[in-house]
Amino acid sequence: MTIDEDVRQISPYFQVRQTTWGGRACFSNGNIPKGTTVLQVAKSTGTSISYEFRKEVCHNCFAYNNARTMKCKLNYDSVKDLIRDAHCQISSKKFLGAGLWFCSEHCKNSYLQTPNIIELIECYEILLRQFPNMLKRYDTSTEQENKLNSIPISESIIQSAWDEIENSWMPLIDNMKPTKKISQLPPISEDEYCCIRFVCESLFNLKYMDPQCMTYRTFNILQSNELSKISKFPVLLHFQKLVFQTLYILLPSHLRKMLTIPLLRHILGTEYGNAFGIWQEGEAAESREYFGYWVFPEASYFNHSCNPNVTKHRKGNSMLFKVNTDIKKGEQICIDYSGVLSLPTLERRNFLADSWFFDCACERCVLELQSVH
Ligand SMILES: [Zn+2]
Ligand SMILES: [Zn+2]
């Protein structure tokens, strides 16, 4: 897809352009001194905190306190007014806290101030209530995983899997009574649970985003890596179907209206290869914890270089992209995708190819490859 004129200008410091060698890249508009922040993004379209960190990371600012459970769990009292105003079906007796934990009252309140946030909390709460039963039935055997990973994958196999969901499974569910529908919930693992929450948040954010805003527009034209990723890990096709089926059965109507197969495939297909890791702040790269991942469409146009001129930093719930050397006008602006810059050439290049599906052709790789051969 071509880049619209106004999407080219994500930042005053650089322009996104189609390159002659394929793909898009960011080129500086002028000389940029070292230390300049060329992009700051504060609103991700979706975040996913790994299951093991679900109570240990603040869901507003991503603070972490050495594996201690966060101080504030979402309680019924803090959401009861929102529940009443939105007429949603969450009762005080059964409220589990929607799986939301915060480092402070301040962070909790700031999260709750997001317009319409109760709609998302309702989804999280419904999912949390059903999750133990779904997890109990999940088949963790390696036989099952090997079986699912041996499926041959092509564009048409992916398409027919989704056609079957749309033409056979969905009409069947549509004709069921609510209690019967619940009995059709598939078994899911902790990973799927986290992914379902990620999709819920993405649907919620997209629902209330201005379609003209830069985040929305860049999200729509993000490159999907669905085929490359599923070809490498065929089990993901099954994984995606479980995510969709769970959401289709559980989502309240306001968000279920948003849920279509093409949108789910775009959300997940663009997450592969475009998501950034959420890393612990203030720790060295080798010892910091990986909490999960998030998607910032505007920040997805940087290419990778093994000698990057821009460094990513996380600051609370935003990401900053800072120039680490003086950049000349017209130079390409690159980041490091993987945090593997210290690895030997071949190992580093294999890692990039496996995770991001490209053979790195950066200057450093070209130079180092010449000396390897
Ligand atoms: Zn916090
Ligand atoms: Zn390279």
From TrEMBL:
GO CC entries: nucleus
InterPro entries per record: H3K4_H4K5_MeTrfase (IPR050869), SET_dom (IPR001214), SET_dom_sf (IPR046341)
Superkingdom assignment: Eukaryota
Gene3D superfamilies in UniProt: SET domain (2.170.270.10)
Occurrences of domain SET (ranges): 12-338
SUPFAM superfamilies listed in its UniProt record: SET domain
Cross-referenced Pfam families: SET
PANTHER family listed in its UniProt record: HISTONE-LYSINE N-METHYLTRANSFERASE SMYD, POTENTIAL PROTEIN LYSINE METHYLTRANSFERASE SET6
Protein name listed in UniProt: Set6p
